[in-house]
From TrEMBL:
Domain Fe2OG dioxygenase, chain residue ranges per copy: 218-319
One Pfam family per UniProt: 2OG-FeII_Oxy
Keywords, comma-separated and alphabetical: Iron, Metal-binding, Oxidoreductase, Vitamin C
UniProt entry tagged with the keyword Oxidoreductase: yes
GO MF assignments: 2-oxoglutarate-dependent dioxygenase activity; L-ascorbic acid binding; metal ion binding
Keyword Iron: yes
PROSITE patterns for the chain: FE2OG_OXY (PS51471)
Protein name: OLC1v1019757C2
A GO BP annotation: response to molecule of fungal origin
Length: 372
């Protein structure tokens, strides 16, 4: 359905009114909202969900990576499984990954405490400036995306240049979260990320340190997502169909569920598993592997109950670049006369700024960087 100019003006007015509260979706819920506002309604969603339910016979691969550093035979088996999942699904879950449950539980509780603190305190950190090292935001693409998502986000550029603890919210320091839980968790994620990049390198027939030497594991952008309970979950989404903007994403989701991945034109549930982490290939890895590994579309359904909480660590740098910005393009060892490069070389900043400019508009984010 094509929107009229009047409808566009009405929508813009509603967006500005929502944005000006600096209270996010949770602020709407706390006000006693019983109906989903029009800016959040996704046209055709109800029909889409009925036409494409999660198929019970399909399941995202679950890979046990225990012993990956201890047993050569087991490592080869893990490398094969990760490589196959990265090519076919772009998504898999890992268990026995080495991050203690106490650490993941602490970071989830920290995200909850931040989003549920007093709104007047929290709104001090509400910002649409993506250069801030720490910010609270609802819908990064509020004014670019065709529909608004039912979620709020706490964002932190945790590596390679972590924020000064004094710049973080007082309430977070009071709960020892930002200083302890977040940095503790990100340290574990960095170590796990290096292991995963080794496995992914080997799965491509490359030397195990290849991706690390390229700088793929040098940054972490942490997103603490909060999906409030929704009065009409059939009308909106917590996160509409999208791909991720890093090299890989390491995601911890709570037990509420709702995450789905698009596989063979079907939406497949990614059910929460005790102790598991969700790993997905992101756009920049698809680019440098010349489409060998797939950055899969995924989404999050809204729920009547809630909140749903997840912690996503995007392994990439954010907007900072040195005097000589690093260029990323298809790996020469993976290209040939029969398999020529699909994409041109780009910087991480160039790619991220493109994402901020277009938002979640349903297009394939790598398309503008294709050579032909």
């Amino acid at each position: 359905m094509v929107e009229t100019r009047s409808e566009n003006r009405d929508r813009l007015s509603e967006l500005k009114a929502f944005d000006s509260t600096k209270a996010g979706v949770k602020g709407l819920v706390d006000s006693g909202l019983q109906k989903v506002p029009s800016i959040f309604i996704h046209d055709g969603l109800r029909a889409e969900n009925l036409a494409q339910p999660g198929k019970s016979h399909l399941s995202v691969p679950v890979i046990d990576i225990s012993g990956v550093k201890m047993n050569a035979d087991l490592r080869r088996e893990i490398v094969e499984k990760v490589g196959e999942a990265s090519e076919k699904w772009g998504f898999f879950q890992i268990v026995n990954h080495g991050i203690p449950s106490s650490v993941t539980e602490e970071i989830v509780e920290g995200v909850r405490k931040f989003h549920e603190m007093d709104s007047e305190v929290k709104k001090q950190y509400y910002s649409r400036d993506p250069t801030k090292s720490f910010r609270f935001i609802s819908n990064f693409d509020l004014y670019q995306g065709p529909r608004t998502q039912w979620r709020d986000t706490m964002e932190c550029n945790i590596a390679p240049n972590p924020p000064n603890p004094e710049d973080l919210p007082d309430v977070c320091r009071y709960y020892n979260w930002c200083r302890d839980a977040m940095f503790k968790y990100s340290k574990c994620v960095m170590e796990l990320g290096n292991t995963l990049f080794e496995i992914l390198s080997e799965a491509l027939g490359l030397e195990s340190k290849y991706f690390k030497n390229m700088g793929c594991s040098g940054g972490i952008y942490l997103l603490g997502q909060y999906y409030p309970a929704c009065p009409e979950p059939e009308l909106t989404l917590g996160f509409s169909s999208h791909t991720d903007s890093g090299f890989i994403t390491i995601l911890h989701q709570d037990q509420l569920g709702g995450l789905q991945v698009l596989y063979e034109n079907q939406w497949v549930d990614v059910p929460p598993l005790p102790g598991a982490l969700v790993i997905n290939i992101a756009d920049l890895l698809q680019l440098i592997t010349n489409d060998k590994f797939k950055s899969a579309h995924h989404r999050v359904l809204s729920r009547k109950n809630g909140p749903r909480i997840s912690v996503a660590c995007l392994l990439r740098t954010h907007l900072e670049e040195g005097d000589e910005p690093k260029l990323y393009g298809p790996i020469k060892e993976l290209c040939s006369e029969e398999n020529p490069p699909i994409y041109r070389e780009i910087t991480v900043k160039e790619y991220i700024m493109h994402r901020y400019k277009t938002g979640l508009d349903g297009s394939f984010p790598l398309l503008p960087f294709k050579l032909h």
